[in-house]
Amino acid sequence: MRIFAVSDLHLDYAPNRAWVEQLSLQDYQGDALILAGDISDRLSLLTDGLEALKRRFAVVLYVPGNHDLWVHREGLGDSFEKFHAVRDIASSRGIHLTPFRHGGLAIVPLLGWYDYSFGIPGDYLKNAWTDYRACRWPEGWDDAAVTRWFVERNPTRSCPELERASKIITFSHFLPRIDVMPERIPEKHRQLYPILGTTLLDEQLRELGASMHVYGHSHVNRHVAIDGVTYVNNAFGYPSEAHHTARQLVHLYTEDG
Predict the structure, then answer these.
(1) Annotated domain spans of the chain
(2) Membrane-crossing residues (predicted)?
(3) Using CA atoms in the order 42, 45, 47, 53, what is the torsion angle rounded to 10 degrees?
(4) Using CA atoms, how far apart are residues 150 and 34, in angstroms rounded to an integer?
(5) pTM, full prediction
(6) CB 222 within 8 A of CB 5
(7) CATH class given for the domain over 2-254
(8) Which residues make beta-bridge pairs with 212?
(9) Read out DSSP for 161-224?
(10) pLDDT tens for residues 143-186?
(11) Helix (H) or strand (E) holding 226
């Protein structure tokens, strides 16, 4: 079984939907796809995208991204309600949101959000970041509380799927550490760093024993080893980003078991 990964498909855009539809219906029937969030904030497009990918891959593993939890166009009560709706849609279509094992390989989805462990948001970010308007949380909940709610639901090392696993790949939508971002990022774009993720994810993936971690969200494709873990970002991104995103599946690993 080959393991592929992609994130940030953003199927709100017609060219992105066309890319999914052109993927072979035969070439990946024995393979697994890690889908690291941000399919669409529209449940209809998210459903269509998951169904299309499940027709192409034997196994699809998924965690929701921030766009997937927007509620400003869906009429849902809050983003937790949206999370449960997204989870139910995915589960009912055979998409894995929980750990999966094949032979000696275990793949573990990790939920997350951002808690400003990468920095404090400035006025520009507070005004520009759509999550602050498109997401809705229960009264009194801040982003740190939201992050804790998600990460507390992630698997621990005692998870049965991790028993006898010789290789563990974890994945999340959000960044587990800020130094996966390359040094070349201009200072003006670093204003976004506070909303990229949380260090709690890196603590969790290392406790699980992961040797590889896939993430999305930043739209900055990356393959870098840090302190014994290989971090991979393969964001598809918006049509306007075609000049700097790979816009293809990345092959992570092959498990023969």
Answers:
(1) 2-254
(2) none
(3) -140
(4) 19
(5) 0.96
(6) no
(7) alpha beta
(8) 169, 230
(9) GGTT-SEEEEE-SSBS-GGGS-TTS-GGGGGGGGGSB-HHHHHHHHHHT-SEEEE-SS---EEE
(10) 999 999 999 999 999 999 999 899 999 999 999 999 999 999 99
(11) strand 222-226
